Amino acid sequence: MNLILLKLILAHLIGDFFLQPQKWVKDKEKKKLKSKWLYLHILIHIALMFLLIWDTSHWALILVIGGIHYIIDSIKLLLQNKKNKRLLFFIDQLLHLVTILLFVALFMGKSLLVFDINQQSILLVICITFLTLPTSIIMKMIFSKWNISKITKGNESLKDAGKYIGILERLLVFTFVTLGQWGAVGFLITAKSVFRFGDLTASKERKLTEYILIGTLISFGVAVMIALLYLYLKAYV
Fold this sequence. Notes:
By secondary structure, this protein is mainly alpha-helical. It has helices at residues 3-18, 22-31, 36-53, 59-79, 85-108, 119-130, 133-143, 148-151, 161-178, 182-203, 206-234. The longest helix is centred in the last third of the chain and has 29 residues, at 206-234. The radius of gyration is 20 Å and the shape is flat. The chain starts with a helix and ends with a helix.
């Protein structure tokens, strides 16, 4: 896999999930193309790509990807409503990824599955980065189908505790799978089930039980898939 490709994917993850506050997202959804945050968001993406690649000879590739990012985001904002918001989120992310893959292949003129020296570390950073806030936001979009606040009413916890627990468990699962310690993954699932058992027994809420079960399975499943994908791509180094 091309080193430039890995750096562009990392720039996308940082720009879309770490350097885009919820305030910006809400303002863009309200004001659409008139939102100043839309244009700042694009500029941040372009700046990140230049910063990570650190080679001005690729300026055309970076500007093309940045321009298409603006077009994709603009179309999403114009088409978005409460009913299709979740679907458009995933389509938007898929289109960004396809754009990066396509134009790196066109500009670089080489196979994307040819690794250069030191690319394994970039790949590892991308996997770990994806398992933190990006996966949390993706799960939030999946659960937006249901009124989670209503389901969890009366079972309040520390602010953002669930998000950080999810991040930690995904990183642990990723570590265990990459090290081949599948037994540790099973132990982690068992330990979490024991801790959650008291909550489920006390609440006696079927919906809450299903919510916790779905969240756990998605979180663990994503971590396992990313770990297996990392091990597969690592073979090309």
